[in-house]
Amino acid sequence: MISIRLTRSEDIPTLMSVFQEAREQMRADGNLHQWPDTYPSEDKIKEDISRDVSYVIEEEGNIVATFAFIPGIEPTYHIIYGGEWIDDTLPYATIHRIAKRHTAHGIFKLCFDFCLQRCNNLRIDTHADNRIMQHVIQANGFSYCGIIHLANGDERLAYQLIKEISSDDIINSTKE
Predict the structure, then answer these.
(1) CA distance 23 to 36
(2) CA dist., res. 40 & res. 20, Å (int)
(3) How many degrees, rounded to 5, is the angle at CA 70 between CA 95 and CA 162?
(4) pLDDT tens, 131-171?
(5) For residue 106, what are the contacts with CB-CB under 8 A and spacing of at least 6?
(6) In the 8-state DSSP scheme, what is residue 175?
């Protein structure tokens, strides 16, 4: 059985192992510059936990993946180059720090579906060398919007997905 839950402090050692495995996979796939050995730091994960934005995906009780789901404004998304956001007026949430064990499958779709259930407007970014992530992002309905710069100046490819709300969604939400 697969489940998603908020990250707990005692999960940090396992998450650091998941991030290390993800970094190794990135390097093997030719993505040599994203996520240096110190990223994400334990302090960053602790901060995410304290803000209730860090999640783990468990399979049979074992953590196989993690991600941050952050509602609200992402400061590095204020300026976008070579394009524009699909909509820059609606509230949105950002997916960051998504990583999985190499043996886990279907994790990205599971993460995106989980996030879409909580926010109809999602943004995500990735490094230009991260071809696998670019493919997964676009395969899950995100549109390329342009280039953003992280706080340290590094470039990232930025994507957005806005889920259309049907009348059935509105009717069902009023029944809950």
Answers:
(1) 8
(2) 10
(3) 60
(4) 999 999 999 999 999 999 999 999 999 999 999 866 555 44
(5) none
(6) H
Tell me the CA distances in angstroms from 41 to 19, 34, 36, 51, 160, one per residue in order. 10, 14, 10, 16, 26
Instruction: State the amino acid at position 36 in one-letter form.
Output: P
Contact call for residues 54 and 68 (beta carbons, < 8 A): yes
Alpha-carbon span 73 to 55, nearest angstrom: 19
> What's the CA gap between 159 and 135, in Å, rounded?
11
Domains identified in the chain and CATH numbers: 2-175 (3.40.630.30)
DSSP string, 91-132: --EEEEEEEE-TT--SHHHHHHHHHHHH-SEEEEEE-TT-HH
- DSSP-assigned letter for residue 145: E
In order of 102, 110, 132, 138, the CA distances from 142 in angstroms are 23, 14, 14, 5
pLDDT of residue 32: 87
**For residue 115, how many other CB atoms are within 10 A of its CB?**
24
Indicate yes or no: pTM above 0.70: yes
How does pLDDT run across 65-103, given as a tens digit for each residue?
999 999 999 999 999 999 999 999 999 999 999 999 999
> Distance between CA 49 and CA 15 in Å, rounded?
12
